[in-house]
């Protein structure tokens, strides 16, 4: 079966660089070409497309509507081609760059990455811990681990585990009120992140539908790992995911006063661009995570 007519790969490569930089001079610098050569290749491509891919401005260029649509597909195709070439070349080592939220990084991933490397010595791993959403278009990361409902436009999402939650606190703080015998006793103590909607979900499941947390001064720490540390320090009651804090529970640094755990349907997800979801290193990492997480959340 014959393929449809394709433009010159050299011109496509130049377009990809120019589209990323929104600047012909910067694209020329990246590719080791002159600006005139970049302009020439773009002109060849525009002739094949039959319309402008860039809108020329006095101070630079912008992608046209056609150019924006084309750039997305070109970027995906260049990623696929790059992965295929790396695999065909038989690289002895691949690098997997991961952007991961703090709690998952600290209380799960960092403790197990050496095992991943032992099983997959040809894949080196670089991690950046960050709550911000990963910009995969920048090309800095291969995958991300995020918390949420699993729906991010343009990304493939693979659920790793459910985000259950339940109140936890230090035993010393519990002793200040003679222990917690019923859910309402929590309201006698400082509540960490009292504006977190998970609190209302948990209290309603516990049979308390009219809980008012507005009088709580609370701590607002932004991430569960910091909330857990604050709870261990006796700063208040934190709403935490038990699987991530087993060590603290076993050591008696935290207690879980009630068996009730809840979920709002959110979880922890491995995400990556749709075009790269089946690349070897991402597939290997996803399969390893699934195996390593077996039984972790229970």
TrEMBL record:
<dbReference type="InterPro" id="IPR036390">
    <property type="entry name" value="WH_DNA-bd_sf"/>
</dbReference>
<keyword id="KW-0238">DNA-binding</keyword>
<dbReference type="InterPro" id="IPR005119">
    <property type="entry name" value="LysR_subst-bd"/>
</dbReference>
<dbReference type="Pfam" id="PF03466">
    <property type="entry name" value="LysR_substrate"/>
</dbReference>
<protein>
    <submittedName>
        <fullName>LysR substrate-binding domain-containing protein</fullName>
    </submittedName>
</protein>
<dbReference type="InterPro" id="IPR000847">
    <property type="entry name" value="LysR_HTH_N"/>
</dbReference>
<dbReference type="GO" id="GO:0003700">
    <property type="term" value="F:DNA-binding transcription factor activity"/>
</dbReference>
<dbReference type="GO" id="GO:0006351">
    <property type="term" value="P:DNA-templated transcription"/>
</dbReference>
<dbReference type="Pfam" id="PF00126">
    <property type="entry name" value="HTH_1"/>
</dbReference>
<keyword id="KW-0804">Transcription</keyword>
<comment type="similarity">
    <text>Belongs to the LysR transcriptional regulatory family.</text>
</comment>
<keyword id="KW-0805">Transcription regulation</keyword>
<dbReference type="InterPro" id="IPR036388">
    <property type="entry name" value="WH-like_DNA-bd_sf"/>
</dbReference>
<dbReference type="InterPro" id="IPR058163">
    <property type="entry name" value="LysR-type_TF_proteobact-type"/>
</dbReference>
<dbReference type="GO" id="GO:0043565">
    <property type="term" value="F:sequence-specific DNA binding"/>
</dbReference>
<feature type="domain" description="HTH lysR-type">
    <location>
        <begin position="7"/>
        <end position="64"/>
    </location>
</feature>
């Amino acid at each position: 079966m014959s393929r449809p007519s394709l433009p010159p790969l050299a011109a496509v490569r130049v377009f990809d660089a120019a589209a990323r930089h929104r600047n012909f001079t910067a694209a020329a610098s990246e590719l080791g070409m002159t600006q005139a050569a970049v302009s020439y290749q773009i002109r060849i491509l525009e002739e094949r497309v039959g319309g402008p891919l860039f809108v020329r401005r006095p101070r630079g260029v912008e992608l046209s509507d056609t150019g924006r649509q084309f750039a997305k597909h070109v970027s995906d195709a260049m990623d696929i081609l790059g992965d295929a070439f790396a695999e065909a070349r038989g690289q002895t080592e691949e690098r997997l760059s991961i952007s991961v939220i703090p709690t998952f990084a600290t209380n799960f991933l960092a403790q197990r990455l050496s095992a991943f490397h032992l099983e997959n010595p040809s894949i080196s791993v670089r991690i950046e811990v960050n709550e911000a959403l990963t910009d995969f278009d920048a090309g800095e990361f291969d995958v991300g681990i995020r918390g949420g409902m699993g729906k991010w436009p343009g990304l493939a999402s693979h659920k790793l585990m459910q985000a259950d939650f339940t109140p936890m606190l230090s035993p010393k703080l519990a002793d200040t009120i003679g222990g917690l015998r019923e859910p309402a006793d929590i309201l006698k103590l400082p509540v960490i992140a009292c504006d977190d909607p998970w609190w209302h979900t948990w209290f309603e499941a516990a049979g308390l539908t009219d809980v008012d947390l507005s009088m709580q001064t609370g701590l607002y720490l932004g991430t569960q790992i910091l909330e857990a540390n604050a709870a261990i320090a006796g700063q208040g009651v934190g709403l935490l995911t038990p699987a991530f804090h087993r060590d603290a529970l076993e050591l008696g640094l935290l207690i879980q006063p009630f068996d009730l755990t809840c979920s709002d349907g959110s979880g922890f997800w491995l995400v990556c661009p749709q075009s790269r979801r089946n690349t070897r290193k991402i597939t290997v990492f996803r399969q390893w995570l699934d195996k390593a997480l077996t039984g972790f959340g229970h």
